[in-house]
Amino acid sequence: MNEILSVFALLGSGTTAGVMFAVAISMVPALGAMTVPRYVEAHRLLGRNWDPTMPIIVITTALADVALVPLSGDPAGAALHAVAAVLVLGVAGVSHLLNVPLNRAVKALGPGDSIPPGWVDPRPSWRGYHLVRTTLAGAAFMLNAAAVVLV
After folding, report:
1. CA 62 from chain center: how many Å?
2. Torsion angle, CA of 54/58/61/63, rounded to 10 degrees?
3. Four-residue CA torsion sign, 113, 115, 121, 123
4. Are 151 and 106 in contact (CB under 8 A)?
5. pLDDT tens per residue, range 6-62
6. DSSP letters along 60-104, please?
7. Among 21, 37, 53, 140, which is 20 to 30 Å from 134 by CA?
8. Closest of 21, 134, 99, 14 to residue 65, by C-alpha
9. Residue pLDDT, tens place only, 95-111
């Protein structure tokens, strides 16, 4: 059971970190360079398939890490999985509480030409929140890898 859960923790945290990294180095700069109407349209097209895929991956990863804490058999491994679980839950928290509301606000806008006067561009805030969750995801992956390989 330990091996199966370890595979889920590694695969999930690696996938999460990889997706976050890819978005950070590709999508964030591209969306930031677009005009507002073009950004709104691109945002709609790019974001429509993330739910429920990423939440399922992130929560499954956190559950695998939590389950590995008592199964680890080693205090160091248990600690690594516990911290990794907290970091992955941090990714979920930042996503759900900060990024998702901004995404919903952008998706609620009409076609590109109907941007309301005084609209506040969410891209700078979204970028900052995304970098936080990218860092959390990368750290969780490193801890999971260390727990599996070193302990």
Report:
1. 12
2. -130
3. negative
4. no
5. 999 999 999 999 999 999 999 999 999 999 989 998 998 887 788 889 999 999 999
6. HHHHHHHHHHHHS-SHHHHHHHHHHHHHHHHHHHHIIIIIHHHHH
7. 37
8. 14
9. 999 999 999 999 888 76
CA dihedral 48, 54, 59, 63 (to 10 degrees): 150
Q: Could you tell me which of 14, 15, 31 has the C-alpha nearest to residue 99? A: 31
Entry field: residues in the chain: 151
Q: Is the peptide bond before 70 cis (omega within 30 degrees of 0)?
A: no
Distance between CA atoms of residues 74 and 150, nearest Å: 11
Q: Which residue has the tokens 């999971």?
A: 144
